[in-house]
């Protein structure tokens, strides 16, 4: 019986290269994590941009509202007051020079409507968001306009009593100067409106 010695390979020759299996799961996890991180960063940037945009939009809206309520809206009322005042004066002169009762009544209605609208516009102006100069200006106009209405009533009473000479004197000495002061008040108020609007626009640009 011949015994043959067999060699069982128990060790791998260290000189041979070792083939390692790639770790597929780890690579996939790394790619997935990178994608998620990129998405998260993108979402964060978009959120920040949106927040900044909302803040800027709100700031612009506040600036526009300040300019509108503090400058544009009061200026609209003062412009209407000027137009109504001249309309009332025209109707008053036309009524006095009318050649027939119907025309006189028509001009009288126009005049009275203008007077009512002047009061309404004055009150609307005073309800606006005003500066100290605006409030003082509209207050002066309101006082002079009230004085004119009182003088007008007094002049009409003198005229109705047939005192035409006295009425002419009253008109020249009292009535006309009173309404002239109201006109001057509106002109001064419009100058205040211009400076107020300029300051509001400058403040909005500097914010």
Q: What do these coordinates show?
A:
With 207 residues, the chain is mostly helical. Helix content is 83%, strand content 0%. It has helices at residues 24-97, 101-126, 132-160, 164-206. α1 runs antiparallel to α2, α2 packs antiparallel against α3 and α3 runs antiparallel to α4. It is elongated and about 105 Å long. The termini are far apart.
Task: List the main descriptive attributes of the protein structure presented here.
elongated, 83% helix, 207 residues, mainly alpha, 4 helices
Largest sheet: none
How much is the radius of gyration in Å? 43 Å
Low-confidence stretches: 58-71
Annotation field: number of helices? 4
Order of helices and strands: HHHH
* Mean residue pLDDT: 78
Q: What is the β-strand count?
A: 0
Strand content: under 5%
Class from secondary-structure proportions:
mainly alpha
Shape: elongated
Helix content: over 70%
Query: How far apart are the first and last residues' alpha carbons, in Å?
Result: 109 Å
Give a quick precis of the structure:
The chain has helices at 24-97, 101-126, 132-160, 164-206.
Lay out the secondary structure.
Layout: H1 24-97, H2 101-126, H3 132-160, H4 164-206
């Amino acid at each position: 019986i011949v015994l043959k010695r067999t060699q069982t390979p128990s060790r791998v020759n260290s000189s041979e290269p070792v083939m390692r299996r790639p770790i597929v799961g780890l690579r996939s996890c790394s790619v997935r994590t990178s994608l998620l991180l990129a998405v998260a960063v993108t979402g964060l940037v978009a959120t920040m941009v949106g927040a900044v945009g909302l803040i800027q939009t709100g700031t612009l809206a506040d600036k526009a509202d300040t300019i509108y309520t503090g400058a544009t809206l009061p200026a609209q009322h003062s412009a209407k007051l000027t137009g109504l005042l001249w309309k009332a004066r025209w109707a008053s002169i036309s009524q006095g020079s009318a050649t027939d009762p119907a025309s006189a009544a028509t001009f009288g209605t126009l005049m009275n409507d203008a007077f009512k609208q002047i009061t309404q516009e004055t009150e609307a102006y005073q309800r606006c968001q005003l500066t100290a100069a605006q409030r003082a200006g509209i207050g002066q106009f309101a006082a002079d306009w009230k004085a004119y209405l009182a003088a007008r009533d007094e002049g009409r009473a003198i005229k109705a009593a047939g005192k035409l000479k006295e009425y002419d004197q009253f008109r020249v000495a009292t009535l006309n100067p009173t309404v002239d002061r109201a006109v001057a008040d509106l002109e001064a108020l419009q100058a205040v409106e211009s400076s107020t609007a300029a300051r509001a626009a400058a403040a909005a640009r500097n914010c």
